[in-house]
Design a protein that fits this description.
Number of strands: 22
CATH architecture of the largest domain: 3-Layer(bba) Sandwich
Helix content: 25-40%
Largest sheet: 8 strands, mixed
CATH topology of the largest domain: FAD/NAD(P)-binding domain
Number of domains: 2
Radius of gyration: 23 Å
Oligomer: single chain
Structural class: alpha/beta
Shape: globular
Distance between the termini: 12 Å
Strand content: 15-25%
Number of helices: 10
């Protein structure tokens, strides 16, 4: 669409599931607004996921406003094409007032005026209030040591990885074992590729335990309703790496130890490159043990819940390691190992440099309470643990968006009836 005006009561920056959820609730309240999307609506689900990608949470948790999962497999895990079809339906249902292919270059207070100036690649707009719904994963992390790798070694970030055939023949080094790293390592391993995996301290969890998906148990335990203010780590939980598990082929655990039994080479944290040799910390055993402690700890909390409620469930037992490293290896020769490609799976950094407002901490992260900042009229939506575990996911963003819509309405952004009639006539 082409904007019919340059001023809106609310401008939403970002057209993913968060921005569209915000648009849904603003439309319900008769609040005029504009969604500005840098690429296309829900773009990241099409462009930043590999071919075999699937959800790691069951389909029943897909619960965007007015658009819940309605398929016949609520306990299954949608694959990439199914997710995008579902999201396309959400876009059609919301029909947001949006402009695509427009980059927001700066958001700032318009002098002493009680409004914001939003400078974009398509010109400037003003708004009474602004919702930053662009997510928190903006800049792919690739360490400087990548520059030292030989020129003939192909390098990708996880956001660029699509499938094993994309990589040249030879062994693959996957760096990082969070959700993306563990699943990409599995994808390559299942395709018969020789994989070297540089691990970190990512946690893991079971897919199924005592007769149900672990997600189902945690939902019954009200874990997904726990606000960040009540979490034992408080805001520190936002720094946690996501647990690795998969929904692939109906869902299963990801056990790096089992991969090692099958020929995957595991190493500790990668720290550098010395000539032709990669360097690692001697902490592989520590990383594996840490992941298993989290795994068993979650299951133990489920055991406690089952016992406290007298629930009839199949018995469970702690995970026992199926493999142990016989020694810590701290060096790996690139040529000797036959590594021809590297996939960096060490995450993303937020980049809110375009938001000119005194609402950030020393790490460039917005300081907020449930998305409401100290700058009147400026809000954030869709960030991990913005309010609950589901805040950055399909399961919780609707609750957050509705909360912010109420905050916006209370701040006086509702369009007066006369102005609404004028806009309707102009349309």
């Amino acid at each position: 669409m082409s904007p019919k005006t340059t001023h809106y009561s609310v401008i939403i920056v970002g057209g993913g599931q968060s921005g569209l959820s915000m648009s849904h609730f603003l439309q319900q309240r008769g609040i005029d607004h504009l969604v500005i999307e840098k690429r296309t609506l829900v773009h990241s689900w099409r462009s930043q996921r590999w071919d075999s990608f699937c959800l790691v949470t069951p389909n029943w948790q897909c619960n965007l406003p007015g658009w819940s999962y309605q398929g016949d497999d609520p306990h299954g895990f949608m694959v990439k094409d199914q997710i995008n079809d579902w999201l396309a339906g959400f876009v059609e249902q919301v029909q947001p007032p949006a402009i695509e292919g427009v980059t927001v270059e700066k958001v700032s207070r318009a002098g002493d005026a009680d409004q914001f100036t939003v400078q974009t690649s398509a010109g400037s707009f003003t708004a009474g209030q602004v919702v930053v719904a662009s997510g928190g994963y903006h800049k792919p992390v690739v360490p400087r040591m990548a520059e030292k790798l030989p020129m003939d070694i192909v390098q990708y970030h996880s956001a660029q990885y699509r499938n094993p055939a994309q990589l040249p023949e030879g062994a693959v080094l996957v760096v990082g074992c969070g959700q993306s790293g563990a699943q990409i390592a599995e994808d390559l391993h299942l395709a018969g590729r020789k994989v070297y995996l540089a691990t970190g301290n990512a946690p893991r969890c079971a897919r199924f335990y005592r007769g149900k998906d672990v997600v189902d148990w945690l939902a019954e335990m009200n874990y997904y309703d726990m606000p960040v203010t009540q979490h034992p780590l408080r805001e520190g939980v936002r720094d946690n790496t996501n647990h690795y598990v998969t929904g692939r082929d109906g869902g299963r655990d990801i056990d790096l130890r089992r991969f090692a039994l099958e020929g995957m080479e595991l190493y500790g944290l990668m720290t550098g490159l010395d000539g032709d040799e990669l360097e690692f910390q001697p902490n592989l055993r520590e990383n594996l043990d840490h992941a298993d402690r989290i795994f068993n700890g979650i299951n133990a909390s489920i055991d406690k819940f089952i016992a406290s409620r007298g629930i009839d469930a199949p018995p469970g037992e702690p995970y026992v390691p199926v493999w142990q490293p016989d020694r810590e290896r701290t060096r790996l020769g690139l040529r000797a190992s036959g590594i021809t490609s590297v996939v960096w799976c060490i995450g993303f950094l937020p980049d809110f440099g375009w938001v000119d407002a005194p609402v950030f901490n020393g790490r460039g992260e917005p300081v907020h309470l449930r998305g409401v900042t100290g700058q009147p009229g400026l809000y954030f939506l869709g960030l991990p643990w913005l309010h609950t575990w589901g805040s950055g996911r399909f399961s919780g963003v609707a609750r957050d968006a509705e909360f912010l819509a109420e905050a916006i309405a209370s701040a006086g952004a509702i369009v007066p009836p006369v102005e609404r009639a004028r806009q309707a006539h102009a349309a």
